[in-house]
């Protein structure tokens, strides 16, 4: 099965053998992760799609792949239109499409370890209208034909010291035990990998670019816990760190343990835990309480130690970015550089800090038209030379004290007037988010419009949210906080923004086939004291300090307040980053940070 067409044909044969008329293929794992290990890359193996979000449905006579606006161009480059239909979400949901295209009376398979209970209920309802049935499979049919499927990572766990975490694992378990008592619950099931890493103050290397370990956990009202993880992944230091209050079991024992709660009240997250967990708990006689993962919000609100660590990581990462931007500005016009060589050079600068643990995601290194693909992933096959035009680099680092994410755009040769106009409008939107003050209780969707307004004025927009949450040496995409409108991927955020949350601030503009623009800083929600205010107010502290390319700015488009913000930002960038640089890099930074 050397081609994706062969794999699709083999899957249809396997479906027939399992008496199925279709199968749903999500891009996730049994933890409903966004980023997954190689062993769980079923969608990519089947279709060739290399984005980080998508789903597919395979029926006897047709197959469809579902992606949102971030991947409109990418999916067409990577997935063969001769075999796959492209379906845009959220305009058309996977379940709606199933309800319209599933064979009458057909049996559509799904892996209950890869879907939420909410999705199963929705899909079952959609199929019922056609007299079709949703069928849970015991053996994933893709696994049955994927002969060289990678095995899960065997990397060992590491302790996240209290000095960096800011709160001990015992204290976190105590908080969760109190949360359980308030709900008269006996236990809670945690399967989100970053929730487990946070709750137990451990980190891992099982998922590329995200420092988590493949594990599941059950935490109890007496503040003890059962951790299910491959025993070989635990070092003596980790065992000592976990202590006697944490019972360790092989990860393979997790499913069976769910059946041992007869008569007990067990909490599980209906949006974050797979359907198989609910099925097993109910089959064992447990009373299941569907509530949100208790680690989710606690993890999102960073403590003072985590905030201080992130600021330190940003200085380190900002200096690496400055060195890279000076390098690319000098080297790109000479020719000979490519998207891959630029990404490798930036990683080299980050490694030179001596503190880099990993990248926080595969760098989005996009030259020219590739910059217009918001979540472009460069490969050996797609690698393009950096030529005159715009070069976009979206990247980040994983450090023990913080996770970074930054996007900058570099002109190669003189930019056009249109490029400068679009860049400045994106900048105006980014500044608007940076400066906004809002009352407690505000959700990200209420301020998203501020970033888009300068583009809307001339009939333009961008096909993604304005900001995502960011973890503390954890996932670069973290919930529940977001800045996004309801009609963008993932839906509108309903979680109020709270002091202590990290978010990105990244409006953009993408001209298909020509260039892309995105300016991204990370920001921290903080309390704001305003004389005469009649209610508590919040605002944002900017965390990222790297110069914004002045040759792409059209000064006359900026208001006096915007110009003042930008000059203050560059002055602070110089103050924080210059001490980390050598003479030549410092001189370059001083020029880039001169008042506009």
Automatic annotation (TrEMBL):
Q: Which GO terms describe its molecular function?
A: aminopeptidase activity
Xref: InterPro entries: Creatin/AminoP/Spt16_N, Creatinase/aminopeptidase-like, Creatinase_N, Pept_M24, Pept_M24B, Peptidase_M24_C, X-Pro_aminopeptidase_P
State the PANTHER family in the record: XAA-PRO AMINOPEPTIDASE 1
The membrane spanning regions, by residue number, are none
Q: What EC number(s) would the UniProt record show?
A: 3.4.11.9
* Domain Creatinase N-terminal: start-end pairs: 7-138
Instruction: Cite the Peptidase M24 domain residue spans from the record.
Output: 310-526
Short name of one Pfam family: Creatinase_N
Q: Which UniProt keywords apply?
A: Aminopeptidase, Hydrolase, Metal-binding, Protease
Q: Where is the Peptidase M24 C-terminal domain?
A: 536-596
SUPFAM superfamilies reported in the protein's UniProt record: Creatinase/aminopeptidase, Creatinase/prolidase N-terminal domain
What is stated as this protein's family in its record? Answer: Belongs to the peptidase M24B family.
Q: Which organism is it from?
A: Sphingomonas japonica
Protein name, please?
Xaa-Pro aminopeptidase
In terms of CDD domains, this protein maps to:
APP
């Amino acid at each position: 099965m050397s081609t994706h067409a062969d794999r699709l044909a083999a899957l249809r044969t396997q479906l027939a053998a399992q008496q199925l008329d279709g199968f749903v293929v999500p891009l996730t794992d049994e933890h409903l992760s966004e980023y997954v290990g190689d062993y769980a890359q079923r969608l990519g193996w089947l279709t060739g799609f290399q984005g980080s979000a998508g789903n597919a449905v395979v029926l006897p006579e047709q197959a469809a792949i579902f992606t949102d606006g971030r991947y409109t161009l990418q999916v067409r480059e990577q997935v063969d239109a001769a075999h796959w239909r492209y379906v845009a979400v959220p305009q058309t949901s996977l379940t709606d499409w199933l309800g319209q295209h599933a064979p009458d009376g057909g049996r559509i398979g799904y892996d209950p370890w890869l879907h939420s209970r909410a999705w199963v209920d929705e899909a079952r309802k959609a199929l019922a209208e056609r007299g079709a049935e949703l069928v849970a499979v015991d053996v994933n049919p893709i696994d049955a034909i994927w002969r060289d499927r990678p095995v899960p990572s065997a990397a060992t766990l590491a302790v996240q010291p209290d000095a960096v975490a800011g709160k001990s694992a015992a204290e976190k378990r105590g908080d969760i035990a109190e949360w359980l008592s308030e709900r008269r619950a006996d236990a809670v099931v945690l399967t989100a990998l970053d929730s487990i890493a946070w709750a137990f103050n451990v980190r891992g290397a099982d998922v590329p670019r995200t420092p988590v370990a493949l594990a599941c956990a059950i935490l109890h009202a007496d503040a003890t816990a059962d951790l299910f993880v491959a025993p070989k992944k635990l070092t003596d230091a980790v065992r000592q760190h976990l202590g006697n209050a944490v019972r360790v079991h092989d990860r393979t024992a997790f499913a069976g343990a769910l059946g041992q709660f007869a008569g007990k009240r067990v909490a599980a997250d209906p949006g974050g835990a797979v359907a198989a967990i609910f099925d097993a708990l109910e089959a064992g006689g447990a009373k299941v309480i569907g509530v949100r993962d208790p680690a989710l919000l606690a993890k999102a609100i960073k403590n003072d130690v985590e905030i201080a660590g992130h600021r330190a990581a940003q200085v380190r990462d900002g200096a690496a970015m400055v060195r890279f931007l000076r390098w690319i500005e000098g080297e790109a016009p000479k020719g000979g550089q490519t998207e891959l060589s630029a990404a490798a050079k930036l990683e080299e600068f980050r490694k030179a800090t001596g503190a880099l643990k990993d990248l926080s995601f595969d760098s989005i290194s996009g030259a020219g038209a590739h910059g217009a693909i918001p979540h472009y992933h460069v490969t050996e096959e797609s690698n393009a030379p950096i030529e005159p035009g715009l070069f976009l680099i979206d990247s980040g680092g994983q450090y023990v004290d913080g996770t970074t994410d930054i996007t900058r755009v570099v002109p190669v040769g003189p930019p056009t007037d249109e490029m400068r106009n679009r860049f400045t409008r994106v900048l105006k939107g980014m500044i608007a988010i940076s400066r906004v003050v809002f009352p407690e209780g505000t959700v990200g969707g209420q301020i998203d419009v501020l970033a888009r307004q300068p583009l809307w004025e001339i009939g333009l927009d961008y096909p993604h949210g304005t900001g995502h949450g960011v973890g503390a040496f954890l996932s670069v995409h973290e919930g529940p906080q977001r800045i996004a409108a309801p009609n963008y991927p993932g839906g509108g955020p309903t979680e109020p923004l709270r002091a202590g949350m990290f978010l990105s601030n990244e409006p953009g503009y993408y001209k298909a086939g020509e260039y892309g623009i995105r300016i991204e800083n990370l920001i921290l929600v903080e309390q704001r004291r305003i004389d005469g205010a009649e209610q508590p107010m919040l605002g944002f502290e900017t965390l990222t300090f790297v110069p914004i390319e002045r040759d792409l700015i059209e000064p006359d488009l900026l208001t006096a307040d915007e110009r003042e913000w930008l000059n203050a930002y560059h002055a602070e960038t110089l103050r924080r980053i210059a001490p980390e640089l050598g003479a030549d890099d410092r001189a370059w930074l001083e020029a880039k940070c001169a008042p506009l």
